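Reopening this one. Same input as before:
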Amino acid sequence: GLIVDFWSPSCPPCMRIKPTFESAAKSNDNPNLVFVAVNTQVARDCGGAFGVTAIPNFIAFLNGKQHKNFKGANEQMLFSTIAELSELVPKGKVVGAHTHDKLSFK
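Same output, byte for byte:
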């Protein structure tokens, strides 16, 4: 599972919910649930690639497919999305999953 936060430092709602997202990421104990923050001022084309038209925009992915997409600094929606993915994403080693820890870029 993956939860992506599309944000910008010039966006007040983004900055308001950013500590909540970061806290959830830090307290996450599931290695199969990944949190990613994309600064749309730095990665300008990334938001467009995912159809982001307003920020903050949160997109959750499950098994490589978009599972949920919502805009706005809605903490309740963020918490419910995290809880939902936490229930759906297994915590142990996933059989058949790629072992990224064995990659080498030397």
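So the earlier flakiness isn't reproducible anymore. For the record, The beta strands are 2-7, 34-39, 57-62, 65-71.
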